[in-house]
Amino acid sequence: MAKPKVAFYWCASCGGCEEAVVDLNEDILKVVEAVDIVFWPVALDFKKKDVEAMGDGEIAVSFINGAIRTEEQEEMVKLLRKKSGLIVAFGSCSHLGGIPGLANFWNRDAIFERVYKEIPSNANPENVFPKTKAKVGEKELTLPEFWDTVHTLDQVIDVDYYLPGCAPPPDLIMQGITAILEGKLPEKGTVLAPDKSLCDTCPRGENKPEKLSIKEIKRPYEIIPDPEKCFLEEGIICLGPVTRSGCGERCINANMPCRGCFGPTKEVIDQGAKGLSAIASILGVEDEEKMTEKDMQKLTDQIVDPAGLFYMYSLASSLLKRKRMA
Amino acid sequence: MNEPTIVSFLCNWCSYEGADKAGGARLNYPANIRIIRVMCSGRVDPELVIQALKEGASGVLILGCHPGDCHYKKGNYKALRRTHLLKKTLKQLGVEEERVRLDWVAAGEGERFAEVANEMAETIKNLGPLELS
Amino acid sequence: MAERIGVYVCKCGPNIGDRVDVDAIVNKVKGIEDVAVAKSHNLLCSGEGLKFLKEEIKNEKLSRVVIAACTPKQYEVKFMRACEEGGLNPYLMQMTNIREQCAWVTPDKSAATEKAKSFITAAINRVSLQESIEKKEIDIQPDVLVVGGGVAGLEACLSLAQKGRKVYLVEKSPCIGGLTARFEEVYPTMECAPCMIAPELQEILQKENIETFTYSEIEEVVGSLGNFTVKVKKKARYVSEEACIGCDACFEPCPVEVPDEYDEGLSTRKAIYLPFAGGLPNVPVIDKDNCKRFKGEKCSICQENCSFDAINYDDEDKTIEKNVGAIILATGSTLFDPTELPQYGYGKYDNVLTAMQLERLHASNGPTGGKIQLKNGKEPKSIAFVYCVGRKEKGYCSGICCMYSLTLARLMREKLPGVKIHTFYTDMCLPKKEHQKMYKEAMEKGIEFIRSGENVTVTDKGEKIIVGTNGKKISVDMVVLAPAVEPNPDTAKIAEILDIPRDDQGFFAEEHTLMKPFSTALEGVFLVGSCQGPKDIGDAVAQGGAAAGRILSRLIPGEKLELEAKVSEINEDLCSGCNICIVLCPYSAISRDAEKKISVVDETLCRGCGTCVSACPSGAARAKHFTKEQIFAEIKGVVR
């Protein structure tokens, strides 16, 4: 029997998700034995026309990482959708928008101004900016359109499953691939990671105070966090409570707080809104009756960049999706 | 009638009754003040506020009991902190802070309710409808 | 199966009918999905209207009902009952306000109609997602906890203890009786105070329905009227209440002597002691802070001298949990420390005393057996009584000091014939029926009254004390100060345990000065006696009876307490045990299940405010009848 066909593609990404596949180490041999990789730009020489030549649904599953913000990315993912039975959004960028999603605080013009003109290390005296069409000699060259807004994969095509994480950990990837190959998949649209948020598996949960409150906010550089204590207890904002578990607490174990890359749990629509609600609720709660409105404002003002912090990975997937430009 | 609407969360024990008092006194305020009853201002989740804006509201008004008088003791303190942080976040996302207002109206304060409602309507009128892409 | 929603728009006579185009709305909403029937009615709240609703539910086989009318705060309960009688769970009904919040505030009819339509659409959206909720009841706890064994607490205990109801009396000190037990004679009857209350004390300790915990304090309280759980710490007495027969043989041999707080420091007591002779229960305690043995030295002299094997050094503090339906705070008061006002010379000069100290000198069971004497042992030939010590600083009149000072002056006159008495006062506070008489008698007995105001300074000159005011200087042997009454130092701690407010002066705050002078903001917690404000014995006893009376009528054994229906619930499968909700609950209704590592809501304590639901970062917490989906559906309706 022919091995199922599998494709990997990358959009607006850093390459970390391709490395995550490589991180499977010996397990990758099992994967290669079980499937036929028919398209993987970073590693194999297959071309777009090879994909175009396939029949609809011929590819069993396509793993697509990276966010969508150019015309080319849109075209490719739509092509892969047509040719694939299942689409898996692989990694935070395709799932939530990820770090590239933070570009939604700006639009194309602002980005181009900054990148091609303002940056001090630039040498661009003639203010050359990318264009979709340019005449070079007799020929006309084209570039894909660069959108104002970064999109998640499911905002552009129909997505079957999500493998969350920046990047998804190897064991989660293996579990996902195994489930697909064995046909033991949950209902469509499921995020292939546990249902509960990070506090469920966090090693610091043992000694966490039952009455958890924050007296004042500390940024991670301001103190050396106690490796046994819950970050929130010490005033460091950790998004663990509002983030799905399954990552193995890689950041926590490196004594850094969670930044939310796995996205919210299933009952939460907007990770940033819930994150800020949870933190604001316990900030200063012990003394709230004695505080004036000014005192409270001083406390919340200790969080200098709430949008960037609470929406770090999920801006493009949030309710507002992007900053409203004037 | 395409007046931009203002979703107004009123708490059952204080501000909702204040709004009723305003009605009893036949005080007027614009019809785009659309009231939703909740038990406490502490129930108003930032997620709900953003959803209201996304659904088409141009402003959100949250009215609770005066600090110290919350029927459930301390719900309004949480509302205060959450709203401060939410407004700051919304500002970063290009939504003017004035579009979300948290204020206090006691059960007997009909006049105050009408005053706040009229003020909010005026503010939103000056800001114009919230157009989200 | 599709829902069958019935929408009923009340015209409320002309109130809504004239200002909103009800018929147009009814026609419009008929077309909304799942709306089986939409009708208007002239007056839904009338007997006929309610009957109509019940019939509609039955005839149209409705699964949901929307009522657009006046404010739900007026008749929602009525309509909910009508639905229930019509066979529909009352929580499957949504009432929307198109009168106070629409018709009456919007002059333009078309704008009002638009607004009413949006409200009704919102209600239809919402009601589709509502769920039935069944009424939950628990048995009312008829038992009562009384904190404080002074006269007010004693009165409450005796009034409440009856068949079917237990009273738990928690007293901080080793003996019950409170302040009253320390006075020799009390005004205006001039009777012996300990004798006056002795029958009550005996009854308390012997009555079957009263369980007394002396040398105990409350540590934790959760709950509300009808359903409180209290943790009481019974401090280790080190003497067995069962074995001790009260022979006092253990006192004499004890090598430790410390100032006796019961005698206001005028005498000493041992480390093993009973606060006062005749104190009940007649079982001493070991003061472990001062006992040699507990400070690490070898000593078991009291045990060696006890013939009844009653002394147990291995005794430990115990925590006892009780379930009660009401709590009465009768924790009393204390006197302001005049050391804080150096102009009165207290603590500086030997013979400047507080009135309480004079009471103890006068008491037959006091440090001098009732002999009034100066520090040098001689009898005073002249005494100055200084009133209002601390009144200006405190900002209130303590109301009892003029009377007890007059009483003491009279008693001094009787005990020390010929003694000269000078009284430095500001105003004479003589409110009740008998008090004016006492003042008149004092004047007739030649007691000098000098209206000094608070402008008094006390200095010395050799062995004499000089009391000066407004240019006048009087030389006396002894000065007796009447300090302000202030709340017991424990008041702050207890207020925090119960989460009840205190007033500006630190006393427990009564719910309403005039109409609810013995309840607090927390339903089921009552205040009696001077912990609520300075008062005399008569008023304290009256207040004790009042609170008891209220409890007797509210907490009837066998009755049920209906719980809040719109509570918060936490989904076990989604809760990650982040603990964020626990600290937020003002009713301590959420606790951690250590085994499952999740948060759990106690439905008997939850009041349904929804604060935890807004904060829950996993979306695991859900507010019944105010779920995020229901509110979101309402939002969708009102923004159109």
Task: Kindly describe this structure.
- The complex is a heterotrimer of chains A (326), B (133) and C (640).
- Chain A is of the alpha/beta class and 326 residues long.
- Chain A is built from eleven helices and nine strands.
- Chain A folds into three domains: 5-99 and 150-181, NADH:ubiquinone oxidoreductase-like, 20kDa subunit (Rossmann fold, 3-Layer(aba) Sandwich); 107-147, no CATH class; 198-316, no CATH class.
- Chain A is 28% helix and 13% strand.
- In chain A, the strands form three sheets. A five-stranded parallel sheet of chain A has the order 2-1-3-5-9, sandwiched between helices. In chain A, strands 4-8 form a two-stranded antiparallel sheet. In chain A, strands 6-7 form a two-stranded antiparallel sheet.
- The longest helix of chain A is centred in the N-terminal third of the chain and has 13 residues, at 71-83.
- Chain A is globular, with a radius of gyration of 22 Å.
- The N and C termini of chain A lie far apart (58 Å).
- Chain B has a single domain, classed as 3-Layer(aba) Sandwich (Rossmann fold).
- Chain B has four helices and four strands; from the N terminus they run E-H-E-H-E-H-E-H.
- Chain B has helices spanning 15-24, 46-55, 75-92, 110-127; strands spanning 6-11, 33-38, 59-64, 100-104.
- Chain B has a four-stranded parallel sheet with strand order 2-1-3-4, with helices on both faces.
- The longest helix of chain B is centred in the middle third of the chain and has 18 residues, at 75-92.
- Helix content of chain C is 27%, strand content 23%.
- The relative contact order of chain C is 0.11.
- Chain C is of the alpha/beta class and 640 residues long.
- In chain C, the strands form twelve sheets. In chain C, strands 10-7-6-18-29 form a five-stranded parallel sheet, with helices on one face. In chain C, strands 20-27-21-22-23 form a five-stranded parallel sheet. A four-stranded parallel sheet of chain C has the order 2-1-3-4, sandwiched between helices.
- The longest helix of chain C is centred in the first third of the chain and has 21 residues, at 109-129.
- The radius of gyration of chain C is 33 Å and the shape is elongated.
